[in-house]
Amino acid sequence: MSENFGVIFSSILDGLTTTIWATLGGIALTIVLAFAAGLGMLSRWLAVRWLARIYVEVFRGTSEVVQLFWIFFVLPLLVGFRLVPLFAGILVLGLNHGAYGGEIVRGAVQSVPKAQHEGAIACNFSPAQRMFRVILPQAVVEMMPPFGPDIMVIYGVELAFYLVLAILITIVMRALESAGAKRIGRMPPPRTKFLAKTQGGGV
Amino acid sequence: MISFDDVDKSWGPNHVLKKLNFHVKPAEKVSIIGPSGSGKTTILRILMTLENPDEGIVTVDGDELWNVERGRRIRRETTQMKLTRRKIGMVFQQFNLFPHLSAIQNVMEAPIQVLGMSKNEAHERAKGLLDTVGLGEHLDHKPPKLSGGQQQRVAIARAMAMRPKVMLFDEVTSALDPELVGDVLDVIRDLATSTDMTMLLVTHEMRFAEEISDRVVMFDGGVAVEQGPPQKIFQDPDNERTRRFLKAVLEH
Q1: How do residues A37-48 score in pLDDT, each as one tens digit?
Q2: Is residue A59 domain-resident?
Q3: Is residue A7 part of a domain?
Q4: Is some CB atom of chain A closer than 8 A to the CB atom of B129?
Q5: Burial of B7 (0-12, 13-18, 19+ CB in 10 A)
Q6: More confident: A80 or B24
Q7: Pure H helices in B9-147
Q8: What's the structural domain count of chain A?
Q9: Which residue of A87, B35, B177, B199 is 20 to 30 Å from A39, comparing CA positions?
């Protein structure tokens, strides 16, 4: 029993590095794609809006497992080479959650009052400056509550020690949320119990 | 400095500006009065490029606000429009400060981002402006920590930081507690007397308008029904509508 335990433990440890890389890579790609898709859906150009919309609908509308299957097994038949499993995993996590995140980003950006856009125009900011200097810093605060659980799902799909990390992320996200809320001078959400449910995201 | 020629604007069935012809000379201080929904604010919003006119030509300092391309006026932001817009500053009824930035950052942001000013220089200018509006003590406070009157004075400093040739004030005291109105009006009075900026004020503060304006324009139903020097408009208006409006707002 005791020697078995050692084997089990070491094989879990072996997988752990892969898992951590996949998770970190997945989160990084998720954030990049979420912002790209979210801002794309709000673009002035019809083609960009459509492209972003198609991406979001396709990857939100199909299951993660099916996407993984396609990327790992079908794609090689089409293009002739197979992705390293780790990269396939990161890619699917990123693509899938990036699509959900795109809606979060879009919603948060749209929730910033019109008065802020107008104030920024009156300051003579260019469209890009308005977005990155005025709108996004306020929108990011709105994104925190829905993004928290979404990032947790990535871990959830992947990790054996889901629970521990989930708690950790919950705590970190709560802290970020209230810090963010304070930054724009809003009352932080009321303190709840340690393990209480996070606020549901409108995904 | 500013000219509106045959400018038309409708919101669905609501015709807010009817073939408006309106001209402002450089350094002139003009107050626009009139009942709600008479198109006063729309004039300022068109100048700030927050609204498009349906028809007509708007120029500021000789430059047209909207470009003409292939015989059609185009509404999107072009270099020429941005340069024209840079001559204009605006203060809003609801302040529209950026809540994630401190008072001084609100004032510094545009000079740094738009004019490419160095941080130190922008900081100096912002500090000077906030001192003149009486907020030298509150440089690092975020807008939600300031009172409405203080926020509005930061907003005035923010608009001034771009050194505009034309300043637009859109009912800047309407959202304030009565006791805070005075400080804000003092700041505007200082600007009116100490600078040669062209100023356009939409206001319900009749005494203030009478005191600082070179000219008062009475608006109703999308047209300027009467205009003239403030003494004339407030003491002895010719137009029946003006007389009724002033009677209603001054008698209470």
Answers
A1: 999 999 988 999
A2: yes
A3: no
A4: no
A5: buried
A6: B24
A7: 40-47, 79-85, 103-113, 119-132
A8: 1
A9: A87
Q: Are B129 and B153 in contact (CB under 8 A)?
A: no
Identify all chain A residues contacting B50, using CB atoms and an 8 Å cutoff.
Answer: 118, 121-122
What DSSP assignment string belongs to B11-40?
ETTEEEEEEEEEEE-TT-EEEEE--TTSSH
Asked, for residue A168, whether it belongs to a domain, the answer is yes
Phi-psi region of B96 (alpha: psi -120 to 50; beta: other; left: phi over 0): left
- Tell me, what's the pLDDT at A125? 93
Domain region containing A95:
16-183
Identity of the residue numbered A92: V
Assess B97–A contact: CB distance below 8 Å, yes or no: yes
Q: Return d(Cα B250, Cα B252) in angstroms, integer.
A: 6
The Cα of A115 is separated from the nearest Cα of chain B by a number of Å equal to 6
Residue A196 placed within a domain:
no
Specify the pLDDT at position B72.
62
- Taking contacts as CB-CB distances below 8 angstroms, the residues of chain B near A125 are 110, 113-114
Of B110, B217, B101, the residue nearest B159 (C-alpha): B110
Query: Do the chains contact at B82 and A183, CB–CB below 8 Å?
Result: no
Which amino acid is residue B165, in one-letter code? K
Quick check: B92 contacting A, CB < 8 Å?
yes
A83-123, pLDDT tens digit by residue? 788 888 889 889 999 999 999 999 999 999 999 999 999 99
What is the CATH number for A164? 1.10.3720.10
- Number of A to B CB contacts under 8 A, please give it: 67
ipTM above 0.85, yes or no: yes
A181 touches chain B (CB under 8 A): no
Classified as helix, coil or strand, B236 is coil
